[in-house]
Design a protein that fits this description.
The protein has 14 helices and eleven strands. By secondary structure, the chain is an alpha+beta fold. Among the domains are: about 70 residues, no CATH class; about 130 residues, Phosphorylase Kinase, domain 1 (2-Layer Sandwich), CATH 3.30.200.20; about 130 residues, Transferase(Phosphotransferase) domain 1 (Transferase(Phosphotransferase), domain 1), CATH 1.10.510.10. The strands form four sheets. It has a five-stranded antiparallel beta sheet, sandwiched between helices. Strands 1-2 form a two-stranded antiparallel ribbon. Its cofactor is Mg(2+). This is Serine/threonine-protein kinase RIO3. InterPro entries: Kinase-like_dom_sf (IPR011009), RIO-type_Ser/Thr_kinase (IPR051272), RIO_dom (IPR018934), RIO_kinase (IPR000687), RIO_kinase_CS (IPR018935), Ser/Thr_kinase_Rio3 (IPR017406).
């Protein structure tokens, strides 16, 4: 018999020695149960194997969990959302169990305990929600408030003999003062003095009480100032109401947005409406200039109003809102003068308190560029210089005005010519500082065009004489300004003595009109 036959016959032999049963050439005594492919791919079998592995690897975590693992017997597991919710629930339970173990480990037998209840994972799909559990914060012991209300006897003390306690007891008063801190304003943070059994003396409590009332009044003042003042974007409730009324009346169709902001005002762009009157035609595009009601950024605003004879009697420094209205009214009157003289400037549509509506210098919501931002050719630069020189002379002679803030920042270039804007600070030449403002304007204009390469540009002293018609002959700027101040002083004395605003400036006839 060959070796193969011996190996095959070995299992059929009777009982023999032990070494024969462990023969490596023999067949195994136990045959494995064969299973189908459907059983291998069964989800139930996979979960059972997973449970066996988890029980062997993490016996403590599974034992501490608040329930068995969701088997999904009665749950449709074909949805990915349901599977994700089931996994999240199991994770939350294990996380909460870990938190409870940490609490017990840290607290131990201590009377002062901590709680991780705020860090628990309360899952919305957990059916075993802790509705019957009481929040630990609702069961804390109040160290100074009795469980049952006790009445204070009329005699003002309790106890007898050495155990007598009056209402002026230091401990009782301290705890009462701590309880009274809860009556402070919500904005005043008093902390958690209740849980610490804090005892405040009367002196400390009175100081905190006074400070809380002061902070409450200060907060009310700040809120009122914010509601009644125009600041960054100049749209406080009163200003919004004015703008809404203009839109509702049909004067304006819509307000698109902010196009410019400065220290004294904010300018918005708007489309004109159809409610045109007989004497006023609303342009297609309008510029809404809203003057800021706070004087924080432009504090010397009263310098241009209180000495102006048109507004001297109405000036009141004690009411800033009236100053703003006068400031807006002043710009309206100055623009009207310039428009009547034919000087290119925005056309006034209407004035409502501190909101001035004018025609828009630009096109399709794009404002005209300032003279400092536009790049002009040498011919256009020369043309702009002579135009500005002519406008300064017209302002002084025909409009009886001095711009007082003329520079490349307040001149726009549109349709091949210069437009003047921002004339709210413009004053008459008889103003106590009118000639000083004119000399400052001449300096700004002369320096800008000299840097721009205009060879024909006059210096500030020559430009001042050309605009004003005065013949001030001084060798240097210091003497020139001294003569200007002398003329202003002479005019001021004349006004005070005669009560008239007639100019006493001596000129050699009308100033020459410079043309290109």
């Amino acid at each position: 018999m060959d070796s193969v036959g011996v190996a095959a016959a070995a299992p059929d032999a009777g009982p023999g020695p032990a070494w024969q049963s462990k023969c490596p050439w023999g067949a195994p005594s136990t045959t494995s149960i064969s299973c189908s492919l459907a059983d291998v791919m069964s989800e139930q079998l996979a979960k059972e194997l997973q449970l066996e592995e988890e029980n062997a690897a993490f016996p403590e975590v599974v034992a501490a969990a608040e329930g068995p693992f969701i088997t999904g017997e009665n749950i449709d597991t074909s949805s990915d959302l349901m599977l994700a919710q089931m996994l999240q629930m199991e994770f939350d339970r294990e996380y909460d169990a870990q938190l409870r173990r940490e609490e017990k480990k840290i607290n131990g037998d201590s009377k002062v305990s901590i709680s991780f209840e705020n860090y628990r994972k309360v899952h919305p799909y957990d059916s075993d929600s802790s509705e019957d559990e009481v929040d630990w914060q609702d069961t804390r012991h109040d160290p100074y408030r009795a469980d049952k209300p006790t009445t204070t006897p009329r005699r003002g003390f309790i106890g007898k003999g050495k155990d007598i306690t009056t209402k002026h007891d230091e401990v009782v008063c301290g705890r009462k003062n701590t309880a009274r801190m809860e009556n402070f304003a919500p904005e005043f943070q008093v902390g958690d003095g209740i849980g610490m059994d804090l005892k405040l003396s009367n002196q400390v409590f009175n100081a905190l009480k006074q400070h809380a009332y002061s902070e409450e009044r200060r907060s009310a003042r700040l809120h009122e100032k914010k509601e009644h003042s125009t600041a960054e974007k100049a749209v406080d409730p009163k200003t919004r109401l004015l703008l809404y009324k203009m839109v509702n009346s049909g004067m304006l169709e819509t307000i698109t947005g902010c196009i410019s902001t400065g220290k004294e005002s904010v300018v918005f762009h708007a489309y004109g409406g159809n409610s045109a009157t007989e004497d006023k035609v609303i342009p297609p595009e309008c510029a809404i200039k809203v003057f800021k009601t706070t004087l924080n950024e432009f504090k010397n605003r009263d310098k241009y109003i209180k000495d102006d004879y048109r507004f001297k009697d109405r000036f009141s420094k004690l009411n800033p809102r009236k100053i703003i209205r006068m400031w807006a009214e002043k710009e309206m009157h100055n623009l009207t003068r310039m428009q009547n003289a034919g000087i290119p400037c925005p056309q006034v549509v209407i004035l409502k308190k501190h909101v001035l509506v004018m025609s828009f210098i630009g096109q399709d919501q794009v404002p005209a560029p300032k003279l400092k931002d536009v790049t002009l050719s040498s011919e256009d630069m020369k043309k702009a210089y002579y135009q500005i020189l002519n406008m300064m002379q017209q302002l002084y002679r025909e409009c009886n005005l001095v711009h007082a803030d003329l520079s490349e920042y307040n001149m726009l270039w549109h349709d091949g010519k210069v437009w003047l804007i921002d004339v709210s600070q413009s004053v008459e030449p008889t103003h106590p500082h009118g000639l000083e403002f004119l000399f400052r304007d001449c300096r700004n204009v002369s320096q800008f065009f000299q840097k721009g390469g205009v060879a024909e540009a006059l210096n500030e002293r020559e430009l001042f004489n050309a605009v004003s018609g005065l013949n001030i002959t001084a060798d240097n700027e210091v003497d020139f300004q001294a003569e200007i101040e002398a003329l202003e002083k002479m005019n001021e004395d004349h006004v005070q003595n005669h009560g008239k605003k007639l100019s006493t400036f001596s000129s050699d006839g009308d100033p020459p009109i410079y043309d290109e």
